[in-house]
Design a protein that fits this description.
Length: 327
């Protein structure tokens, strides 16, 4: 019988299938079900840097939010009153008392500010690890690529000083030297890279002639991009790799592990199919491992990573093979 246990950022997991950060991971009841259905770990819904800043503001007086957009200030102030850092640490406490899988906190952040000192309180609440969702588009015309990267280095270095928790960094792919940059991040004493962050995607309503939001629950979105970069980075980074985006079922999970992912994170597929879909994914994964006589996850992890290839040349040849014959 296939053994799904694995290591992820130094933690022992029963399965490489993690529930990614989302609205489903903000309640104890749902997290208990995820654990019962076999999830290897759960990444809690992100708390925003602004929520922590708001708490500091209440404790010590005025702190500027990192925005000059008036509507944003109103929204942040309303949102932060609904969901506090205190509630977040209480959820961690409750989870740690009731479920026996690792609980990973998540902070959505854009800057290296006072909020970082609060990482220690997550550690004290008993959380097993921290995922940083560093969330900003390089859409500032005054910000160079190097300055953009520097923001990541600052946040990570600063948070590393604040806590000894294992740290995962969920990042975007908007960097000019992506392989080089992600490799450098992996040497900053982080324990995982999570590829890739999904940004809010604006759409346009051609009837109302207005900006609209594209659907948040599209399956398979971003899967191949994440697969490519997991395969490129496998064995070239100094930390675990976790794939997020487009893991619709066991097949996509297997592909990511074959490419070199230590774990995969599932979100939209659970919204669309229900939490017990985790059982289906696990059953199919076990069946596939048995069929291919893989007793353990490590027996097939990275088997199809690009590790022995010069990625550039390898991908160029694949591109030629793929497109040359189509007329
Ligand atoms: C409704 C919803 C809420 C989400 N909330 C968060 C969040 O709070 N923090 C975060 O890092 N990612 C969040 N995500 C992104 C997911 O963790 C995941 O990276 C993304 O949805 C891609 O995976 P999927 O294709 O399995 O949905 C959210 C996604 C959805 C659909």
């Amino acid at each position: 019988m296939a053994n799904l246990s694995c290591k992820y950022m130094g933690l022992d997991l029963k399965s490489p299938i993690i529930v990614g950060s989302c609205g489903l991971t903000n309640s104890l009841e749902k997290i208990q079900k995820m654990a019962d259905y076999g999830a290897g770990a759960v990444v809690l819904k992100s708390i925003f840097e602004e929520q922590i800043t708001n708490e500091i503001k209440q404790n010590i007086g005025n702190v500027d939010f990192n925005t000059d957009y008036a509507e944003a200030l109103d929204y942040i102030s309303g949102y932060t009153q609904m969901a506090s850092f205190e509630t977040y640490t209480q959820l961690i406490n409750k989870c740690k008392q009731s479920v026996d899988i690792p609980i990973i906190a998540s902070i959505n952040c854009t800057s290296d500010g006072d909020w970082i000192s609060y990482a220690k309180r997550l550690e004290e609440a008993g959380v097993d690890a921290l995922e940083l969702n560093i969330f900003f588009l390089p859409a500032d015309f005054n910000l160079s690529g190097a300055a953009n990267e520097e923001r990541y280095y600052k946040i990570i270095n600063h948070i590393r000083e604040a806590t000894r928790l294992p740290i995962a960094v969920k990042t975007s792919y908007y960097f000019s030297g992506l392989a080089n940059f992600l490799q450098k991040l992996s040497y900053l004493d982080i324990q995982s890279l999570v590829l890739f962050n999904r940004f809010y995607a604006p759409d346009i309503d051609i009837d109302k002639l207005s900006i609209a939001a594209s659907s948040a629950l599209v399956e398979n979105d971003g899967f191949y991009n994440s697969l490519r970069w997991i395969a490129i980075l496998y064995k070239h980074v100094n930390c675990s790799l976790s794939a997020t985006s487009g893991i619709s079922g066991a097949e996509e999970a297997i592909k990511q592990i074959l490419a070199g992912a230590d774990t995969v994170q599932v979100v939209t597929a659970l919204y669309n199919n229900g939490l017990d879909y985790l059982k289906t994914i696990h059953k199919k994964l076990e069946k596939w491992m048995d069929k291919h006589q893989f007793a353990n996850i490590d027996d097939f992890k990275g088997k199809l990573g690009f590790v022995n290839q010069n990625s550039d040349a390898f991908l160029r040849i694949q591109f030629m093979k793929h497109f040359a014959g189509i007329e």
